[in-house]
Amino acid sequence: MDKKIKNKSTPTKNTEEVKKTTRVAKTKKSSSNEKEKIVLDINSEISKGLSPIKLAKADKPFTIKDEDDNNVKVLDNKTLKKFKKANNKAWKKDGREHLKNQEGLIVEVEDVHKTYLSGNIATEVLKGVSFSIKAGEIAILYGKSGSGKSTLLNIISALDRPTSGKVIVNNVSLPYMSNEKQTLFRRKNISFIFQNYNLLQNLNSFDNVETGSYLQPVKEKRLNLKKLFRDFELTECMYKYPSQMSGGQQQRVSILRALAKNSPIIVADEPTGALDEKTSKIVLKILQQINKEYGATIIIVSHDPSVAEVADKVIYLENGHIREIIQQERKWLIDKNSSENSNE
């Protein structure tokens, strides 16, 4: 019987040692599992395509440099997330998505900021911009390279989103729209004129202009294309291909393509930038004629002072701020120059 008792007590001691060893092993395994989980979580985040900024020191703020004034800004992970969401996705509805334009206005921009993130660098391109444009006006976004004028044009035309602020164009609050709805908005409301023409090289002029007409979903609003070529003295170019035309002729055809869509707003990014002075005047005269006859609102980006002189409103941008807004009586510079040249 003594042997049996002894045998029973011995396993008890061994059991305690085994349990102790098991607890240590579990602790080590648990620690190892946590490390593996962290690695898996990070790999998962990377696989989602998130910015490296979000993976580094996720529990601490990040130092962000402003390239314009060399200030050092500290943004926490939550703020960075807001920036990326505001820049790339439709804003969360908060009641302002139903805002409409005030009577007589077609563009309203209020306290708009735009910040781009690249690595750990945040560059604020627009810094609290506010202005409005009346329906039927010719407005110029004027300023030197890097002033923010092209970024502003992209935001107005639903090609980009503001980081914060209010943007209402033709009774639509743009930041709250999904990418798909913004595409439909551009199709319905915006026509584009590019500095480098962007004509389709395998189509003649008439067919290039017709592509603009196809983008107008309402057939009744489509214009008579042959009449457009006659009205703007381009009949001889109607069946020429882009390679058979001068730069000035190509730009005029690209303007007809924008007009053929018959949208309420035409935006032009440096439309005279690649043209000589004489051809630039012809192009500006056509834009004035379009504005006068069709009532389209025309918004032009330019650093050329002569372009600014033909506008109803000049919005002068400098380093992301609006330096000055000039509301002027239209001078019809091109008509004046034409009459002076004919008198000579």
TrEMBL record:
Of the GO CC terms on this record, one is:
membrane protein complex
**The entry's keywords:** ATP-binding, Hydrolase, Nucleotide-binding, Transport
Q: Check the record and name the CDD domains matching this protein.
A: ABC_MJ0796_LolCDE_FtsE
| Any one GO molecular-function label of the UniProt entry | transmembrane transporter activity
- InterPro entries, per database record: AAA+_ATPase, ABC_transporter-like_ATP-bd, ABC_transporter-like_CS, MacB-like_ATP-bd, P-loop_NTPase
What ranges does the record give for the region Disordered, renumbered to this chain?
1-34
Name of the top EC class for this enzyme: hydrolase
**Pfam families in the record, alphabetically?**
ABC_tran (PF00005)
Enzyme Commission number(s) from the entry: 3.6.3.-
Residue ranges of domain ABC transporter in the record: 107-344
The family assignment reads:
Belongs to the ABC transporter superfamily.
Q: What is this protein called?
A: ABC transporter ATP-binding protein
- Write down the species: Metamycoplasma orale
Highest lineage ranks of the organism? Bacteria, Bacillati, Mycoplasmatota, Mycoplasmoidales, Metamycoplasmataceae
